[in-house]
Structure formats: C-alpha cells, structure tokens
C-alpha cells in the first residue's frame, strides 16, 4: 500500500510510505480417519505393532464440534534450533501461532509412549481430546507424572535427546517427521494416583480416560472461575459438552463417569456454578454415568 502526502508551500514534498501486509491462509484437510473406531487397549495387554496412528470412535455428524483450544498460544520451536546450537543443549524459541494437526499430535503421543514406558505418566489436556477425536489444533502435548518421578523424568528426557526450553523448565522439545520441533509440557500434580488412566491405541499410551479428562476440566473450571473471562468459561463448557457426548456415543464402560474416577467433578464447588450457568448440559452428566444431585431443579 502506498500513501502520498503533500505539504503546503512553494514546493511539494512527496513522502512515500510502504506498508507490508501479511496474508495467512488456513487450509482445512478432510480427515476420513474420524469415521473409524478408536481401539482401546486394556492395561494388561502389550502394545500392538500396527499402524502408528489411531482413529477415534465415530461421532454423529451433529455431535462433532470445531472448538478453538481454550489454552493460549505458547512458544513454538523451529527445526533450525538444532542446527544453530553451539555447544548448548537449549533450543531457540520463536514466537508464532503455529499449531499441531492430528497427525503431529499422534506422532508426539507415540513418542511419549515409547520413551516413558518405564515411568508412570498420563497424556492429558487438549492433545488427549484430539487423540479421542476432538477437532482442534493444540500448541503442545501435555503429560502428567507423579511428583516423585520429577528427577528421573528430567534425566531420561535429556538422555533421549529431548530439548530443554530456556526459562520453561516444564516444557521439552521433540522433533517430528515433518521437521518441526514440537512441545511437550510436563506437570507433576500431587494427586496423580487418583486420576483415571487407561492404556489406549496401538502404542498402548497411558492417557486420561474420557472420565479423567472431564474431571481435569472440572478442576480447571473451578480454579479459573473467579479470574477467567466469559469467553474462557464458554470454551471450557464447550469442551465439557464434547467430552460428555463422546462418553455417551462410544458406550465404553471404561470411560463412563463413576464417582471414584471424577473426584473433582462431583464436588459442589464445580457442579453448582456449572449447572446454574449451563442448565442445558445437566442431562448429559446422567447419560454419561453420573447424575447431578437434584438435577431436576436445573
């Protein structure tokens, strides 16, 4: 864009201002893999050596949602971070809004299953939802570990070539087959042993069940209720609706809501404000396996 300005006087001064405009295009790719069922591997069975990518349980056309991730964009790593290192094991960080597609999420999750099979862990958050069939593009894969494994996890991550991120000791970088460096965020919740974890997919990755994801979401909703804006709360509610619908549609007992699997969701500090804010969602809890007390009042 060129703008011309004229000043008064005997002579005219021409000032040319050049403005560079960046246009981004998003290409939506059809994913026929969503039409096939996602196998759930029992905990006691070994990994099956088949295709590395799983396909989620089928959803009805009106049951699928395209939801913007509730999590904010984070630092993104680029492949030349490896080439530009000079004796340092820290990666170069460039801020961008690049996200992971379904294939990249599955590849990172398979890496976690292979590299951390010897310690307790569970994939959680938005990436776990995508693995189960949620239509989103997360910026990182989150995994949970018990507090007592903190030092072991750090040592194994370095030994396996994962990149520590400067000033972000909870995030590691891993390279995927597309040449990009992806982020894995590791958290150490005090109540890890109470979380409901399953072995899923061909790689038998440890992942929160759908009930476990619902409980994690309930805890996040309570923690952010006083400080988050309306859009954030709406995103969390939409994600809860998707999880409940997925439980209802897949009809797998290992994912159903049970009190022992959802210790945070069954607390009044979650379901009272949530039910008052979203009364239309209340019947879904009962269909997914747990009935809100006095749900006929909502």
Task: Give the beta-strand count.
Answer: 11
Number of H- or I-type helical stretches: 8
Taken as a percent bin, the fraction of beta residues is 15-25%
Question: What is the CA-CA span between the terminal residues?
Answer: 56 Å
What structural class is derived from the secondary structure elements? alpha+beta
Give the overall shape, derived from the CA principal axes.
globular
Count of domain modules: 2
The biggest beta sheet is recorded as: 5 strands, mixed
Estimate the helix proportion, in percent.
Answer: 25-40%
Q: Whole-number radius of gyration?
A: 23 Å
Region (Disordered): 37-68
List keywords for this structure.
single chain, two-stranded antiparallel ribbon, globular
What would you say this structure looks like, in words?
- There is one protein chain.
- The protein has 298 residues and is an alpha+beta fold.
- The protein folds into two domains: 1-208, no CATH class; 209-298, no CATH class.
- The protein has helices at 80-83, 102-115, 125-131, 150-159, 210-224, 230-250, 268-277, 282-287; strands spanning 2-5, 15-18, 76-77, 93-94, 122-124, 141-144, 163-165, 168-175, 181-187, 197-200, 205-208.
- The strands form four sheets. The protein has a five-stranded mixed beta sheet with strand order 5-6-9-8-7. Strands 1-2 form a two-stranded antiparallel sheet.
- A hairpin with a 4-residue loop joins strand 10 and strand 11.
- It is globular and about 55 Å long.
